[in-house]
Write a sequence for this structure.
């Protein structure tokens, strides 16, 4: 198969040459004009983020199922505005696989998310392929194709890209464009497309792909921290997040997690105190001493009402273990029967709530989830049905001994 950086896809498997990626505004305008007529576009990106806070976009691949294009965003003087306009076109569905990092890139560079989107990893959860299925496994399962992985760890920022790298990159959207119609037809024929509405609502929310500095502390692994120390950590983590975003460097390049936690607990009062903080950049003479001292003094001046309130650890009666186990078995039975990922219906915490409360405000007791699982779970708790095993398979037995 020949993959063109800006042309049609040939089915001649003896051809293994790819054209160079698009690097001029004239070529980009032409391919964007062609793609405006598409009903959908398979989209993928190649990027690196080891040295930056935001992913560094290095290549954009697009296919409408007829032609595949690679666009080089690092090309000098290339204006991506026409591409961003295409990504915003509501008449064209943008298809991704596990597109969260791609969404983060688009949100940062174009200030918005591509809309509407379709994610084949999300769709796979109701196609019997489990939760968070890998792209190569999905391609093998549906298209019976093997993906060449030899260029997976390429440094995509280096130029020029060689032929193998471009072929590898274009394969992702070529196969993605083949997967989309098949998966879409399957879900529509089974009337399951609406089962993913909540997942897509989250994936279409810009807040999913950005970190609120005020909430950055929640990503740190802390246990049993005193309210005063936790308040310092909340403010220090917010400061670090803003620094990392502003300077576009990884958080730990500003200051490491464990150092931030140490600062919050020890609360150094002067420069000499910073000398005792492990891995503090530059020690007591480091350039971060002054801004951190300013934050610590600010926190000290806050009123007592600013202190975080510890979660109440009062005794909560846990549901009987037997009920939990039965609900887990029932969930496994239902998800196997309908070939969907269990987490689409209920998490472990939600099952625990359901075990104690028949009117719990959880997903499993609303909409299609209630239809296929919630009602069965309630009937199981009421003793109207039972679980049994026959020939290695789970059976639901009605109270009158009839089997389902």
């Amino acid at each position: 198969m020949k993959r063109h950086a800006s042309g049609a896809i040939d089915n001649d498997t003896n051809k293994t040459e790819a054209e160079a990626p698009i690097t001029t505004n004239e070529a980009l305008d032409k391919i964007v004009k062609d793609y405006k007529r598409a009903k959908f576009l398979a989209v993928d990106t190649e990027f690196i983020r080891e040295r930056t806070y935001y992913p560094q976009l290095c290549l954009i691949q697009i296919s409408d199922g007829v032609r595949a294009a690679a666009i080089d965003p690092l090309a000098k003087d290339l204006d991506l505005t026409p591409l961003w306009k295409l990504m915003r076109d509501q008449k064209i569905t943008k298809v991704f696989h596990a597109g969260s990092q791609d969404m983060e890139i688009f949100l940062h560079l174009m200030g918005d998310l591509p809309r509407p989107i379709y994610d084949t990893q999300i769709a796979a959860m109701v196609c019997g392929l489990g939760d968070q299925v890998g792209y190569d496994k999905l391609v093998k399962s549906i298209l019976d194709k093997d993906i060449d992985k030899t260029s997976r760890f390429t440094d995509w920022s280096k130029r020029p890209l060689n032929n193998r790298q471009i072929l590898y990159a274009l394969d992702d959207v070529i196969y993605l464009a083949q997967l989309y119609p098949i998966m879409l037809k399957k879900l529509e024929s089974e009337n399951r497309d609406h089962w993913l509405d909540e997942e897509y609502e989250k994936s279409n929310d810009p807040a999913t792909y950005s970190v609120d500095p005020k909430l950055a502390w929640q990503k740190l692994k802390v246990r049993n921290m005193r309210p005063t120390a936790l308040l310092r950590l909340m403010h220090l983590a917010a400061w670090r997040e803003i620094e990392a975003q502003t300077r576009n460097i990884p958080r730990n390049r500003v200051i490491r997690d464990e150092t931030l936690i140490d600062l919050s607990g020890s609360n150094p009062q002067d420069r000499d105190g910073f000398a005792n903080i492990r891995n503090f950049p530059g020690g007591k003479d480091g350039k971060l001493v002054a801004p951190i001292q300013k934050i610590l003094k600010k926190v000290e001046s806050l009123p007592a009402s600013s202190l975080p309130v510890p979660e109440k650890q009062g005794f909560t009666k846990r549901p009987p273990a037997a009920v939990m186990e039965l609900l887990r078995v029932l969930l496994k039975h239902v998800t196997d029967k309908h070939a969907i990922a269990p987490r689409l219906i209920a998490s472990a915490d939600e099952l625990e709530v359901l075990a104690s409360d028949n009117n719990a405000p959880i997903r499993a007791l609303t909409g299609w989830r209630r239809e296929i699982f919630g009602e069965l779970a309630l009937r199981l708790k009421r003793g109207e049905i039972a679980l049994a095993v026959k020939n290695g398979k789970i059976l639901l037995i009605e109270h009158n001994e009839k089997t389902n």
Q: What stands out?
A: The beta strands are 6-8, 40-48, 56-63, 67-71, 93-96, 117-119, 385-390, 393-398. The chain has three domains: 6-209, 213-306, 321-398.
